[in-house]
Prior knowledge:
Blueprint: E1 2-6, H1 28-44, E2 47-51, E3 68-70, E4 74-77, H2 89-96, E5 101-104, E6 116-119, E7 122-127, H3 133-143, E8 149-154, H4 161-164, E9 165-167, E10 172-175, E11 189-192, E12 204-206, E13 209-213, H5 217-225, E14 230-233, H6 236-239, E15 250-253
Parallel strand pairs: 1-2, 4-5, 7-8, 10-11, 13-14
Antiparallel strand pairs: 1-15, 3-4, 6-7, 9-10, 12-13
Amino acid sequence: MLMAVVRDVSLSIADCELTHLARMPVDVERARAQHGAYVRCLEKLGCAIHRLPVKDALPDAVFVEDTAVVLDEAAVIARPGAPSRRAEVPSVERALESRRKLLRIEPPDTLDGGDVLTIGRTLYVGLTRRTGPGAVAQMERMLRPFNYKVQGVEVSGCLHLKSAASFIGDHRVLCNPAWVDRGIFKGMDIIETDPSESHAANGLLVGETLLYPETFPKTLERIRARGIRVLTVDLSELAKAEGAVTCCSLIIKLSQ
Ligand code: CIR
């Protein structure tokens, strides 16, 4: 059984943090409608939905992925690199505390959940403006007892590691080689994004289905050609806030 932790789009989303995109007007109603459809997809894929309280004063609060990294044995509570995002964390902690042992990234280090790509027992952690080597070292120390390997990964040109690569099941990685060295995923089946679709490397695996933006048809074709089951969503309004499909939920296994 899976649970998806989500939070509705804040009224103030147009004031979001931006690192690699120019600011554009965001239509909040449209963003909310798209987010609603995304949540219905998660339900359709079998997730029980846990809704966090809406935080209209926190522009990026819909991007819950950045606040925690949930593993089977524990959850790492992040310390987002953007100070404006740290007030998002306590409500996520409350949602997770009855379900996982909580570990915390301590100051001064910072970590965004979007920088953590978990594949089996390895956590690849993007070294970005949001996440530094100190947080990687903290993760390494706190997860060693659970037998996880933690590896820092250079990322350039995008916000998070998971903007550049995501795990799409069955030893497969979707990757934009312009933003992360594909050699890191040696031994895996790497599907490269189409060069004309730079933001296409972010997909969310839910069970055996990949939730994927409908806005990247060429990369989608490459994914489908591998026989991967895909459900498409339109998150184009949230993309203006530099969000994508993994960012809008924390997927948690409940059956343990
Ligand atoms: C930010 O800059 O923090 C937000 N505007 C976007 C966060 C997207 N999160 C993610 O990719 N995990």
